[in-house]
Design goal:
two-stranded antiparallel sheet; TIM Barrel; 10 strands; about 10% strand; about 50% helix; alpha/beta; about 270 residues
Length: about 270
């Protein structure tokens, strides 16, 4: 296994020019499956992590539990790990810095930090302060600054592109390594965003979104499935339970990873 420093340097390099496709994981087993499938890095989904640990998404999970999960994933895989830490598990910039420092010490190569708060967006200046504190806490970490203008459909749609680009520029000035804009996948808008963001751009993908190669041509460096894989896995669990309990049959669990193959991933 390479050192934490080597993996962090590699993670930065994977964004330039990209594309870096990330099927997000939520526990050690899913991270090992992602690695075995050939992924170049593992990114966690905050929602999946929270659900797997018995909490709701949205800064409800205790910081120490999130850090512990990241450390266990880092210890299990040999590729870079990026941790989705929601809005930083902290009310203040100093608390965000504590979170990021702990995540870096756990061996992660990158973090995602959201700018959403409540039903809207955090004030730009306040988010800059939080990102700057995160950068100071972990100078080498890949800091992916998430902008929720499209995901939350904030403001007039006609102004959304400009507002997103303004926030992106501010966040990069504060120390972000890249910009994550979930909630938008139409190629025209994505192309304009990628042109206007002076750093690697990340989008959230899933059913209905353009393929990875199409997004790459539009200038996107990183594509993430987010919580979609965890949601699909839990959907299988629900279908299997309902089928067993209502019809007494088992077709819902066909096509699973064979026991021996899955068990062999744990060394």
């Amino acid at each position: 296994m390479t050192s934490s420093t080597d993996r962090t340097q590699l993670f930065h390099a994977l964004h330039r020019p990209g594309p870096l496709a990330l099927p997000n994981a939520w526990d050690v087993a899913s991270a090992l499956v992602v690695e075995a499938a050939g992924a170049k890095a593992v990114a966690t989904t905050s929602a999946g992590v929270a659900w797997s640990l018995g909490a709701a998404d949205g800064d409800r999970l205790a910081r120490d539990r999130a850090v512990d999960l990241v450390a266990r994933i880092v210890g299990a895989v040999g590729i870079p790990v990026s941790a989705d830490i929601e809005s930083g598990f902290g009310r203040t910039a100093d608390e965000v810095a504590e979170t990021v420092r702990a995540i870096a010490e756990a061996g992660a190569s990158g973090v995602n930090i959201e700018d959403g708060v409540g039903g809207g967006l955090r004030d730009t200046a306040e988010q800059e302060e939080r990102l700057a504190a995160a950068r100071e806490a972990a100078p080498d970490l890949y800091l992916n600054a998430r902008i929720d203008t499209y995901l939350r459909q904030i403001g007039d749609p006609a102004d959304r592109l400009e507002r997103t680009l303004e926030r992106a520029a501010s966040f990069l000035e504060a120390g972000a390594s890249g910009i994550f804009v979930p909630g938008v996948t139409d190629l025209e808008t994505v192309t304009e965003l990628a042109k206007g963001i002076a750093a690697p751009m990340n989008v959230l993908v899933g059913p209905g979104a353009p393929a990875v190669d199409e997004l790459a041509k539009a200038g996107v460096a990183r594509m993430s499935l987010g919580s979609a894989v965890a949601e699909a896995a839990y959907a299988v669990a629900r279908r299997a339970a309902e089928e067993l309990l209502t019809r007494g049959t088992y077709r819902s669990v066909e096509g699973g990873i064979e026991y021996g193959e899955l068990n062999a991933l744990f060394k």
